[in-house]
Write a structure and sequence with these properties.
The complex is a heterodimer of chains A (about 100) and B (about 180).
Chain A lengths: L8 H8 L1 E6 L7 E5 L5 H12 L4 E2 L3 E8 L2 E2 L16 E11 L5
Parallel strand pairs in A: 1-6
Antiparallel strand pairs in A: 1-2, 3-4, 4-5, 4-6
Chain B lengths: L10 E5 H16 L5 E7 L3 E10 L4 E4 L2 E4 L1 H14 L2 E8 L10 H6 L7 E5 L12 E6 L2 E4 L2 H7 E4 L5 E6 L2 E4 L4
Parallel strand pairs in B: 1-3, 1-10, 3-11, 6-7
Antiparallel strand pairs in B: 2-3, 2-6, 4-5, 7-8, 8-9, 11-12
The chains are: A alpha+beta (about 100), B alpha/beta (about 180).
Chain lengths: ~100, ~180
């Protein structure tokens, strides 16, 4: 009996993974993690926010953190990170905060 | 591997040239009666050293009476520039207008960066007050800015005359060496 070669799904998965780095200006260390290409931007955003100890909040104003890359803020956080990769398997985001003034302004 | 993002800071080392560059940078908005400010950037460690004064200015920066705002695009540009050098944000220094106390306002406390160890410094009299003793000094700790009293400040703020400092301007397009502030 012969056994047909099997695809190494684990290896294939590793090769598809994207190495994500998120930097935040006040922090000395960046957040690093490998994600599957279909991972949403929101998943990365939440993990990075947790790492840096910040969270979206609201008082009179609204404070929301975004991932930005190359000067562009990623506002559609439901999209997979594979949409953002241009070359290779790496992404380097920067975490930034958007303050939206409330009606008292 | 992820490591602690905010190592404890015992001492901030600040060259007097950084003070001079800060005061020079805030003169322009101060003269117009607006608020303005700078970022102090450098190496963060137990002894943290300010290597650069970054002056947000122009596209993506709002300087107005009663408030100063740096948009996320400018913050991102400074973040990219600092990351290339292995530097972090150590402090944010901004001015209050004539007659407004050199103390963090309620709005300042809500809007400034909320990360442990970050300094918030307020210069009064539209940036014309050169006496550091009259500036407001605060550190973000335990989820809020707390004032640093004179004793603690003298202990933890080390003024030097040797290191020098780089001065850069920043807008939404990026950071550039400052030419004329």
């Amino acid at each position: 009996m012969s056994i047909a070669p099997q695809a190494d799904l684990t290896t294939t998965g590793d090769q598809r993974e994207i190495q994500v780095t998120v930097s935040y200006l006040p922090a000395v260390a960046s957040f690093h993690h490998r994600y599957a290409p279909e991972t949403t931007v929101e998943t990365v955003r939440e993990a990075a926010m947790k790492f840096f100890g910040v969270q979206d909040r609201q008082d009179r104003d609204t404070y929301r953190y975004f991932l930005e890359i190359g000067g562009s803020r990623i506002t559609d956080t439901s999209q997979p990170i594979s949409n953002i990769v241009e070359h290779g398997h790496e992404l380097h985001f920067h975490l930034v905060e958007q303050i939206t003034p409330g009606s008292g302004w | 591997m992820n490591v602690q993002p905010y190592p404890r800071i015992d001492v901030w080392e600040l060259d007097r040239s950084a003070i001079a560059a800060t005061l020079a940078a805030v003169q322009r908005p101060g003269r117009d009666g607006n608020e303005g400010g700078v970022f102090w950037i450098g190496t963060r460690a137990a002894i943290s050293v300010v290597h650069a004064v970054v002056v947000p200015s122009g596209d993506g920066v709002i300087e107005a009476v009663g408030f100063w705002r740096v948009t996320p695009e400018v913050f991102g540009a400074i973040s990219r520039w600092a990351a290339e050098r292995g530097w972090s944000l150590l402090g944010i220094c901004h001015i209050h207008g004539e007659g407004v106390p050199a103390r963090l306002s309620v709005q300042d406390r809500r809007h400034l960066v909320r990360a442990p160890g970050v300094l918030a410094v307020v210069i009064g009299s539209g940036g014309r007050d050169h006496d550091l003793e009259r500036w407001g000094w605060y550190e973000f700790a335990s989820a809020a800015y707390r004032e640093i009293g004179p004793g603690e400040r003298h202990r933890r703020l080390r003024l030097t005359d040797v290191a020098g400092v780089e001065v850069w301007t920043a807008d939404r397009r990026g950071c550039r060496p400052a030419v004329n502030l």
